[in-house]
Amino acid sequence: MTDDAAATAAPEAFPEERSTLYVPGPAGVLEVLAESPSRRHRVPAVAVICHPLPTHGGTLRNKVVHMTARALRELGVRTVRFNFRGVGASEGEFDKGFGETDDLLAVVEWVRSVLPDYELWLAGFSFGSYVATRAAQKLPVRQLITIAPPVHHYDFAALERPDCPWLVIQGDEDDVVPPEKVYEWVESVDPPPQLVKMEDTDHFFHRRLMDLRGVIKNGVRHQIPQPRTRVSNG
Question: Which domain holds residue 48?
Fold first, then answer.
């Protein structure tokens, strides 16, 4: 595999080293990248992060997804990225967010099997934010992060508000997702998510990725659980 990650079948413990894994999914195996923070900074939380639209080149290696994972690991959270069905080594075909939600649920099932006592966090960028929000309807999520949610294209209004802290990040010069549509949608949610408007920022956060890192860390820092003296799997 690429990126010096060791490729293995889904293990019975969360890997200590950066690893590419294969998790059974509803449409075939799913390619998963699992990463851990350093031991001394580790907290009992794990975040599963969803990538943007596969039909427009979205993969788990998208720069925004990568930066989201990096920001959370710097706070001590283990991270899991994965390719939706039909992307990279993941089997299956694109399913407009419905099958992709099932893919996310399958990955979370593995995560919860190896880290049953950890808080579950979900994050997503663009299309991935819709999938994460759909899945949050069915999961005990403790923190949701949605970056540039495409509320103009997918029916976010039909989804119930997850019962957890929710951070929404939107660039004010996004040329893919209309910023005003996102702002209006946020105001319609009860209670509204925490909204961060990033100035001079386009959809892919060009030249603003490090700023995005800081926004994520500042936005969820107060939700980080306290480290334990002994935590399962590390």
Answer: 6-223
